[in-house]
Recover the amino acids of this structure.
């Protein structure tokens, strides 16, 4: 069983930065990909960014492009999200998720239904 734990959320002023971490544990962890999603109050969960575990290639949604960077530490089974130039509209609960290794679909999955494991989420609040 895979467990994902997010850390690093908090309150920050607009224009500031935060770094989220997602640590994975389990007997064997070798996902096809991991990703970050977010959900603001009253809105659906939305894709933010994803990284293919094997080669580190990534995709990111347009609204955070050039501001957010996803990365992973293969040896530590940990994924990161560096968030810069934060805006109030980035306020949401951020979830990390993982895709099982035997995956078939787009190279960089953006559909939350493609992700099999989820963390509990961490709150990010950006004040104006």
């Amino acid at each position: 069983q895979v467990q994902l734990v997010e850390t690093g959320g908090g309150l920050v002023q607009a224009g500031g930065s935060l770094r989220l971490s997602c640590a994975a544990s389990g007997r064997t962890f070798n996902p096809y990909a991991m990703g970050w999603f977010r959900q603001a109050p009253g809105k659906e969960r939305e894709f933010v960014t994803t990284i293919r575990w094997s080669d580190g290639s990534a995709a990111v949604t347009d609204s955070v492009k050039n501001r957010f960077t996803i990365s992973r530490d293969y040896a530590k089974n940990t994924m990161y999200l560096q968030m810069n130039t934060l805006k109030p509209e980035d306020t949401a609960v951020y979830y990390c998720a993982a895709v099982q290794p035997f995956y078939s679909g787009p190279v960089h999955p953006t559909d939350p239904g493609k992700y099999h494991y989820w963390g509990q989420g961490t709150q990010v609040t950006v004040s104006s």
Summary: The first strand starts at residue 3 and ends at 7. The two ends are 40 Å apart (CA to CA). The mean pLDDT is 96.
